[in-house]
Amino acid sequence: MEKPAILLGSEAIAHGVRLCRPQVISAYPITPQTHIIETLSEMVDSGELKSQYIKVESEMSAIAAVLGSVSAGSRSFTASSSQGLAMMHEVLHWFAGARLPLVLVNANRALGAPWNIWSDQSDSFSQRDTGWLQIYCETSQEALDTIIMAYKASEQLMLPIMVMIDGFILSHTMERLLIPTPEMVDEFLPAYQAPYQLDPENPLTFSGAAQPDLFYELKKAYAETMTEALTLIDQIQAEFTQKFDRKYTAVMRCQEGDKNSDTAIICCGAMTGTARVAVTNLNENGTPVDLFKLRLLRPFPKDELTTALKDKKRVIVLNRACSYGVGGTLSQEIRTALYDLAERPVINDVMISLGGKEVFPETISEIVRNQEQLSASECNWL
Q1: Any idea which architecture 3-244 has in CATH?
Q2: Count of beta carbons in the 10 Å neighbourhood of residue 148
Q3: 12-62, pLDDT tens digit by residue?
Q4: C or N: which end of the chain has fewer Cβ atoms within 10 Å?
Q5: Full strand arrangement of the beta sheet holding 296-298
Q6: pLDDT confidence of residue 259
C-alpha cells in the first residue's frame, strides 16, 4: 500500500531517489535544487538511505564524481540547476558518449546574464544535444514516479537521463502525493548489475581515443539506441501504470475540447497546470481547444505527436526557452516533427515566459481567443 504524504516537490524527489537505492550521491548546492540534496544528505546521515554521499566543491566535480562511480558499476544520482547544469556541460557529453546510466534531476531555472533565480527551461533545453534523454514533469507526483521509471530505462538502455522540474513552482511548493513502498519499487526496479565496469581483475578501457571510422560507427549506434528508446520507454510506462495505477505517456492529452475543436495548445512542465485551468474555462465558454503536454523531449516522440496533432488546423506552442534568432525552442521541435504531414497545421510560436515571468490562466485564454492575430512566421513575444 502506498503511503499518502504532503511534501515539497524537492522532498518528493528525494524520496523517489531513496526508493531507487543509489549507492553513490554527489551534488553541489544551487538554488532552487538545494532542497533535494539536503534532504538526501539527511537521509544518508540518519541511515534511512544507505549510500555514499560525496561532498564536492562544484557542479563539475559532482558530475565527474558520479562518472567515476557509475564506471565502477554503482547506481548513482546527482542534481543541479541553471549555471550549475551549464558547468556540467563538458562531462554531460562524456557521460553520454561512454554509454553510462545515470539519473540527474534538474530544477529548471533561467541562465544569466542578467542574474535571475526564477524558472524557465533555458538551462535544460540548451543541453538537448548532449545525448541525454530528457523528461519534463508537471507535478511532484509525476517527478517522483518518473525518477523510478528513469532508472529502469537508463540502466536498460545504458544511456543517461535528465528529469526536469520547474524551480520554485514545484521544488518549493507542497503537494499531496503517494509514496510507493520500498518493496513495490524493488519489484519494479531490480538492483543494478553493470554489464561492464572498472575492475583491476578484468581491466577495460573506458572512453579511449577512436579513429574517425570507429567514432562514426559509435555515434551511429548511439543514434539508433536513442530511436529505439521510444519503444522501451513506452513499455516501462505501461508496466509502471499496471503496477502503480498512474499513467504516463511521452505526449499526454490533458484536456479535450469538443469534436469541433481544431486548435490545440502544447507545452511542457508545470505550466501545464495553468493551461489546464485556461482550457477548461475556454471549453466551458464556447471556445473549443485541446491541451497536450510533452513529457519527452529527447528522444523526440515524433510519431506520437504527429498522431495527436494531425487533424488540428492550429497548434499554439507555449515556450519557456528561446533559440535566439530563430524563436521558441519547443516550437522548432514541433515544426520539425509535423513537417512531413500533407496538411500541416499553422504553428503559432509563442514566447510566454522567461526568467519566471508569471503566467496566469487568463493570459493563455487571451492568446487562444486572439489566435488570428498571432504571427504564423515569427515568434510572438507576450
Answers
A1: 3-Layer(aba) Sandwich (3.40)
A2: 22
A3: 999 999 999 999 999 999 999 999 999 999 999 999 999 999 999 999 999
A4: N
A5: 52-55, 24-27, 76-80, 103-108, 161-166, 133-136, 296-298
A6: 65
pTM of the model: 0.97
Is the pLDDT assigned to residue 204 strictly greater than 90?
A: no
Helix axes 89-97, 212-244, angle to 10 degrees: 90
Give which of 250, 207, 252 is closest to 229, Cα–Cα. Answer: 250
Residue burial 33-44, b: 16+ Cβ < 10 Å; e: rest:
bbbbbebbbebb
Residues of the chain with CATH 3.40.50.920: 253-381
Residue in 63, 10, 17 with CA at minimum distance from that of residue 36: 10
The SS3 assignment for 109 reads coil
Q: String of b and e for 255-285 (b: at least 16 CB within 10 Å)? A: bebeeebebbbbbbbbbbbbbbebbeebbee
Answer for the pair 269, 166: CB distance below 8 angstroms, yes or no. yes
CATH 3.40.50.970 spans which residues of the chain?
3-244
Instruction: Give how far Cα 305 sits from Cα of 51, 161, 231, 302, 312, Å.
Output: 39, 21, 14, 5, 12
Helix (H, G, I), strand (E, B) or coil at 270: coil
C-alpha 358/C-alpha 316 separation (Å) is 18
Specify which residues 79 forms β-bridges with: 105
Contacts of 180 (CB under 8 A, 6+ apart): 2, 19, 148, 244
> Does a cis peptide bond (omega within 30 degrees of 0) precede residue 32?
yes
Show the cell assigned to 71. 564506471
Q: Is the pLDDT of residue 258 over 70?
A: no
CATH of domain 253-381: 3.40.50.920
Tens digit of each residue's pLDDT (9 = 90 or more) over 115-150:
999 999 999 999 999 999 999 999 999 999 999 999
The CA distance from 312 to 300, in Å, is 20
Alpha carbons 308 and 318: distance in angstroms, whole number: 17
Where helices occur in the chain by DSSP H, the ranges are: 9-19, 34-46, 59-71, 82-87, 89-97, 122-125, 140-157, 182-188, 212-244, 271-284, 302-309, 329-338, 361-369
Phi, psi values for residue 108, rounded to 5°: -55, 130
Q: How big is the CA angle at 31 (ends 25 and 35), to the nearest 5 degrees?
A: 50
